[in-house]
Amino acid sequence: MKKLLAGLALAAGLLAPAAWAQDAASAPAAAVAATATAAVDAASAPAATPPAEAAPAAAAAPAPAPNKGDTSWMMVSTLLVIMMTVPGLALFYGGLVRSKNMLSVLMQVMVGFSLMVVLWVLYGYSFAFTEGNAFIGGTDRLFMKGLWDNAAGTFALGATFSKGTPMYEIVFAGFQATFAGITACLIIGAFAERMKFSAVLAFLTLWFTFSYLPIAHMVWYWMGPDAYSSAEVAAEMTSKAGLIWQWGALDFAGGTVVHINAAVAGLVGAYMVGKRVGYGREQFTPHSLTLTMVGASLLWVGWFGFNAGSALEANGFAALAFFNTLAATAAAVLAWCVGEALLKGKASMLGAASGAVAGLVAITPAAGNVGIGGGLVIGLVAGFACLWGVSGLKKMLGADDSLDVFGVHGIGGIVGALLTGVFNSPNLGGPSAVADWTTVAMVAPEAYSIAGQVWIQAKAVLLTIVWSGVVSVVAYKLVDLTIGLRVTEEEEREGLDISSHGETAYHK
């Protein structure tokens, strides 16, 4: 983060934040964490007075302060994302594996999430959300230094979407920590039931450092709207942003950063760890669809914090993201059930839960970037597309992606990212994108190019796939050479609950 400190012209010494925030039409989930404080010259010339009268002292304009409602909403949203992971994702994944591996999945999710939060505090936040270059941030916030502003005697501030509307940087940092945590845990479903616990943690550490942090920086880091103080500095401010943000890609809450990024890592892991013992010859049925249903429900509820919280304010864009998260997910559930009934003659509970997650994934990059009609279409398309992803595509790929991470998060994330470029169009009911941050003017309907925006979205998707794929191959290989990726065949047959943790989920 680049701190800009300047003394006030007046003795009042008031400070006002220069923003780090996310483009409302782009990726509000990740406003720049580079908190900058700028001088505000609030002095105005005193009115003319008769010579015999002393000129009144000019009153300084008060510095903007964080809104308590916005702060409360962001803290609640952070809690909701934690609930998505522990217990939501843990139960969703846990119910899908065999009973002998239930605790191993719960452990991997809980401990993996905890590991990511600690790494986020140590260096992750700084490398993702401070100024560095187009690919990675700097060291200004290592160990979270600077979140308390000693000079000002208060917590450091950053901006939200709106100019001159600060929030506490510590709140944003905590919110984004939960994103890093759940993203890493999504990968676990691809190699469930066969990977060493220590190998899981080692891989997640490497992948988080070299894939999650750069992708988050490239997609979400920019200098914030207040930095665009004039047309003369606009180009310079944009050049300091992450590469994908400079392209103009729209990612409201993490279609690329979270879902595609994690899905590619999971698919690579499914190949490199290898298939489960007995895969293709034995039945691998979920041991508790009841728990999977509970987990999916917790994911849906928590996702309102994930998406609507990404607005960074309790405003209209948060409400739009909230509504789209509700409607698109419901549409995806129906689409999956219809597709399953047509293909298999029956709609299943597993299908309905999977459809819900597919809709949640697909609407993530679009949540605050498309209108409600566009959100419904995205949900419907995602339901059918992800059903194909876990059936037809999975067979084509030939990988033992245990819990269909790529089929749901990869395909759903790609669908959502591309269709965001379509339905962001004001001609199709979308809010459009910001054309000029100096004036905060939006792209006019006649100037919006769907083809152009979809191409930008496609470039962001392709870069994410290649980056995560290369990092994942190297990380898995390093772990395999040092620790070893898999448990022994005997341990796998016994079940990872006993062999890896000495416990069992169910006592007979």
Automatic annotation (TrEMBL):
Annotated membrane topology: Multi-pass membrane protein
TM region(s), chain numbering: 73-93, 105-123, 170-192, 199-223, 243-272, 284-305, 317-338, 350-368, 374-393, 405-423, 454-476
Start and end residues of each Ammonium transporter AmtB-like domain: 73-506
Name under which the protein is recorded: Ammonium transporter
Family designation: Belongs to the ammonia transporter channel (TC 1.A.11.2) family.
Cross-referenced PANTHER family: AMMONIUM TRANSPORTER MEP2
UniProt entry keywords in alphabetical sequence: Ammonia transport, Membrane, Signal, Transmembrane, Transmembrane helix, Transport
Keyword field contains Glycosyltransferase: no
Position of the signal peptide: 1-21
Localization per Swiss-Prot or TrEMBL: Cell membrane; Membrane
InterPro entries the record matches: Ammonium/urea_transptr, Ammonium_transpt, Ammonium_transpt_CS, NH4_transpt_AmtB-like_dom
